Structures are given as C-alpha cells and as structure tokens.
User: What shape does this take?
Amino acid sequence: MKHLIHNKTYILKCLLWMVTMMAIYQANGQVLDSENRLAVVLSDGTQVVLYGKATSLSDEKTKDYYYLPVNPRLSFRPDGTPEFLFTKFITEAREENGGVSGALLHFLMQWGLTPEQEAELKGKLTNEHQGARLLGPVDVEADGADSFKIISATVNESNAGFTESLITSGNASVIPGAKMAVASRLDKYGAQLLASTFEKSKSITDLSIELSFGYTLRYPAARGRAVIHWDKLHTQLQKDSAEYNKEIKYGKERTGYFGKFVDAVFGKKEEEHITYNEARSFYEELRNNQIITVDFEEGQDSERVSKVREAFFEYFLSQLTDKESGRKLSKPSEQEKESMPDIKHGTNYKYNVSKIRKSIQSGRKEFNLNYRLAIKKSFAITGNLASWYDGVRDNPKCVSSVNLNDPFFQHRDINFILDLDAKEMFAEEVNYVTVNVRKRRSGGHDFSDRITLDQNHLSTKGVKATLTYARGEDQNPDLYEYMTQWSTRGGQVFPKEGEWKKGEWEGVTLIPPVKPLTIELEADLEELKTHGISRVTAQIRYAKFGQEQEKNLHISMAKGEVLSTGKLFLDKEIEGYAYRLIFNHKREGKLVTEWDSKTNDNYIYAVIPDQWITEDEEASGESNKPVLDLKSSALLQAKDAGQKLLEQAKAKVLSKFDNLIGK
Assistant: This one.
C-alpha cells in the first residue's frame, strides 16, 4: 500500500512539474526548439542564427523561426544622418598655460535586421528551406548587470591615462531597433590613438561593443532520471565544519573549486568566484560521490542524451551561482565552446549564498527526464567601430576638428545631451526637463536662456538640445552656469529650488534624479497551499524625491502565479528599499512580517518565516510534516500586525533604515 501511495505521489509530482514547465512556456510567449536550428548567410555576409518554434508535446519540427540578436550598427536620425560624433579639439595655448586638447566621442547604436535584410532572409527561408517562415526576433533578456561592454585599450573607464570620462547605457537593449549610447571625452593621447585606428589602412579600430543576451531553449526529452541529494551534501558539510574552522584558525587557506564552495556556504569570504571549468569539475566530483546521479536507459540516441545531460548541468549551475559581469574577459575553454557554440569569451560565475542555502534546505530533488527541459542560454554579438566609421568619415556632421581659439567660437554652442535612461523614462515617469542657462559677461548684460526637452523634442530633434551664446567682447573667462528642473508624473517638480552648476563647453549630460528599478516577487505555490495561504503581498516602501512612497506586488493562488513584477522609480543615490510580506490565510486573516530592507537586489522570495512553522505529527498524520503553529508568539504577533495594518498604513518606515534615505 505504501509503495502504491509513493508511486502516486511521484506521478503527481511529475505531472505538476510538467504543467509548471508548460506554464513557463506560455508565460514566455516563445518556446524555442534546441534541435531545430538554422544558420543563414545573407548577401552582405551577415550570418543569422534562427531557432524553430517548438510544438507542444511533440518532437515535430515546425517551419516557423525566430532569429537571435544580430547586426549591431550605428543608428540614424529621421533625416538619414548617422548618430555619430567624433570631434578633435585644441587651443593655441599649451596645457601648462591653461590650454586644452583632446576629443569627444559620442554615438548611438542598435541591433536587429534592417528592412532589406529581413526581406532577404524571408526569401531565403522560403526558397532554400522548404517554405520556412520568419516570425521575428527571439525574446531575449540582458545577460547580467553589465550586458553592454566596451572593449578598448583607449576608451576605457579604468584607463585614466587616455579617457577622462565615459558614459554608456549600461545594459544591452532587448528590443531590436532600440538605441544604446556611448559618450566619452579623451585626452590628447587617447584622441590621437583612437583617430589613428580610424584610418582606412587599419583593419580594425580600438573600440568594439559586445552585447550579451540570455534566451530560453527547450531541450529534448530522454528516458531517464536525475537526483540531487542536497541533504547528503548538507550532512557532509556539517560533519566536516569543525575541520574547516580549524583550518581557518591556523591560517590554512583552502583552494580549488570545493574549497571555494565551502567558503561560500560558511560565509568565510565576502564573494567566491569560479570559472566554467571549475564548475564542471565540482559537478563531476558530486556525481562521483553519488550526491548527483543522472541515469538513462540504454539504446537511446546518444546525441540527444548528451544534450539533456548538458541542459541538466546548466540547471544545477543556476541553483548555486549567478553569472558574473565586469570581470576580465578571457578565451572560452574547449569544453565551453563545445557546450555553447556562440560564446565569444570565457564565462565566470560567483556563488549566490541565498541560492545555495535554499537548495540545501530543499533536501532530495528528483527530476523525471522523460519531459522536456527549458534552459536559459547565453548569446553575445560584437561590433567594431571600423565598419561604422567608414560610413561617416567624410560627413562633417559626424567627424570634425576644431580650434577652440578660432574666431568662430565667439559664438559658442552649449550642448545638452539627454542620458539614455532618461529618454526611456519619458514614456513612463518623466514629463519634461527644463534647463536654465546663464553666462555672466564682463561688460554687463549677462546672457540667460532656457530650453525644455519633452517627448515632442525627442521625437523631432533627438536627445540633444543646443543653446547658442554670443561671446562678443566678453572678457570674462568663467564658464556658463546651468540649472535643471525635472517634471514627473503626478505633477511633481524636482528640485523645487534648483542649484546653479558650472558647465563644460564640450557639453553636459542630463541625468534624471530618479532611476527605474524592476522588482520581482516569487513564491512557492505548493508551500503556500500547504499552509492555507491564498495570497501573498510584498509591501514595498522606497524614497522618491526624498519622500516615502509605497508599491505593492501580489501573487495569488487563484491565478496560479509564481512570479509578479513591478517597476519603481526611486532616488538615484538610493541603493535599496524596505519591504514586508503580508500573507492572507484562509481562516486566520492577514499575517504580516516585520519590515526588512534590500540593497542592490531586486528579487524578493516570499518564504513563510521559520518562527511560524512547527512539526505536528497528529495534525498531519505524517512524521515531521511542517504546519503553521497557530499558537506561537511569532504568528500571533503577525496576526495582530495584520489587524493593525490600516492603522500602520501611514506610518513612516524608511527612517528605520539609514541607507535608504538620502542625506
């Protein structure tokens, strides 16, 4: 009888897992088949990689395809002008006598097929691949916090010898045609070096752009089973913890992939980094020790089994680590290139302690590999400025040299360039930004003017606004001054009283006082259902213009949601927010946790506090099954907080967390 119950439970888990995966497919909108891949070369040499749309519960190959990000290039204004600026400047005076020299580099770029390329690709699919159809680009996401990289020895933020300033969009755009920006000011040596690589005799310039993306592929099923014995690993770690502490006490430092894992678990170091090869070696050691077992039936297609094995390894890696960005780029190993053919650079990871502890606490995990797996894959595209520059080198709107002592500069252009983050926020948060400018003249009659950038300005004139100042007989060497004021949704204006700042003749980048932050709330629906929770809410408090704001995210059992997202706009200098969880219990009402804070972390996992849980054999009929302890002081306190929720709605929270309030 117990065997029968166990089998039913196992089958139920498998069905639940399959339904969950199908829900994920539907939520993503696109389900891509890893075994249905095409590579098409266009007439201009562009190679396009496509994946077929997967069919539900079938291995049949469709003829509907999506293409991966491709063709990084300069963007153009509506009048056809390339959005590229390279200006070398110099003064008559030497630097030691107050002169300046150098260069400005500013350009906007995008990715995706042009209309001509898309038409050609559709024709090739129809004629050369039995009537295949192009459905559009693959749904991708930015792969890591630094998915937009500049690869250059000259234009480099860490290279203080050549680059005086560098601003980028920060993240790769996930929408084809959306613009990304790079702006840099170079000193005289950096200007000369970069200009020399722009010459026609050079095959490549010293500036490349790499965009990193993540996308999801469905891997084939194979008759087999995989088990991760997190409980065995936890037992072994606890058994050896005394020895680990002894090694630390006597100054012995552990090395290698296993030592790094131990340090991550016990928090001996702030961060632990591993390479792809170290991750593979650690995985194989766990398999040799039977902590991980992956078994398949004999007589199956070996290539399919290999794909499923690799997909399961990537799943295991995602349960322990986060992909690391900003580390030194290296060449991928042979094993990496075999696993990820599109990879350009070696991958580094860092252990995520919260993921590790959550995995270890989950105990034994079993996976039925008879069902398909959905795995996140990485993909990168690279563009070099050489080919882009060739198309603009003879365009005076894009490339020029100026002498700042030339009489022409008795009329000076004052340029204000909108930061790309601000441009993206205009549709959601920002109404406009007004810039007031003044220039004190030595002979009196000071110059003053203002300009406003709004959605109409962006649509017709782009991200740059220009005011012209007539120098005349002015002998005042001081720079102009400017003051900004931002208007946001709800009629708020910030700052109320502006502050005058010194400007630069080369231009000013306008950066908004708030920044967007997308929060993700996730929950285990099975856990909530077990404890009678019908709904969980994350109540979030954050600072905007120095005032406390609130936003709520919900996950409902009735809707079958596992993930809820919402966007905040918080003060730019603030790195976090406060939050608490509100659980709606079917009988006990609202149960409210204490306020907590997060810094540089946009992910909230709705876990029921351990203090609310007990093990009740009589109530459950099973040994050691966790249930809500309705008599515990912690839960009674949470219930009381739920009853007072409306009274507390106006209470200030952020004052409890110094790091969340601007000083």
Confidence is low (pLDDT under 50) at residues 1-6, 10-28.
